[in-house]
Sequence to fold (325 residues):
Amino acid sequence: MQLVINEYGSVIKKEENRFIVVTKDQKHEFSADDVKQILITAGASISANVIKLAMSKDIDIVYANKYGEPYARIYPCRLGGTTLTRRKQATQYLSTKISEAIKNIAKSKIKNQINMLKSLSKTRENVDFSEEIKSIEAQLENLETLVGNMDDIRQQLLGIEGFSSSQYFSCLSRILPFSERQHEAKDPFNAMLNYAYGIMYSEVEKSCIIAGLDPYLGFMHTDRYGKPSLVLDFIEQFRQPIADRAVINLFARKQIEDSDFESSGNVFMLSERGKEKLINEVMELLNRTIKYKNKNLPWKAVIMERAREFVRLLLEGEYYGEFSA
Fold:
């Protein structure tokens, strides 16, 4: 389970093998054996003994801002891969095997966008995304024409990915309450989506670190100061089936309420209630089992496996293929 601390002033203590969370009105106990991650999204006090217990159980502690974006994390010193893995990550930057892998991640994202639009059009009357789907499918053919290392293909790759995403969100805006994709949310849908992506950034970053990858050494998004650029590369293959699906599910079930949001000027943010609702939906999907390479795995394990496969690409030259759900 993910232990979420989202109430301001919460105190987290340790008693034997248990985490004790004390809020203004309540006290909760959680066995450390059941906790996989502690996510803190509000001002809280955490003791050194809690950190020691968490580290002994390989539980990472993540701090996220009000938009759900992780800004700090505590994880065991023994986690992370070998020096060789990170050295290879740096020195193979211009390898065509790397550019092929990043192309396959982009293919995965585009195919997931297509699958999402096809799924939504089947369940809604008077909705026809066929022209947009054809346009997005054409981008898969454009990807096949890209040849060279990452420096050779980056701008074209970003252009293809950007065009596909614009078509995808244009379709979504016809059935959901938003007009365009915004990183500074001016509506509830974008506020929900931004927070869902924040949760996913945390999950993907954790998998990269455990696998031994440097989350700040990316390939498509390149090095951005203070930004985990590899996480930005890697998350692309998981946005639609987890984050987008979670938000769409909540709107489709009419579970979104005004009380799920707060606003500052014309910018929307999630309230504590809204955060809890969305976190529960995302976590349910992350724990949902899918078929991956003839194995039944929860999405969390698939993300971890994809990170380990990338390590095998770096160390052994193993082909990193596309994956869509």
In short: The chain has ten helices and twelve strands. The chain has a mean pLDDT of 91. The domain at 2-74 is CATH 3.100.10.20 (Ribosomal Protein L15; Chain: K; domain 2).
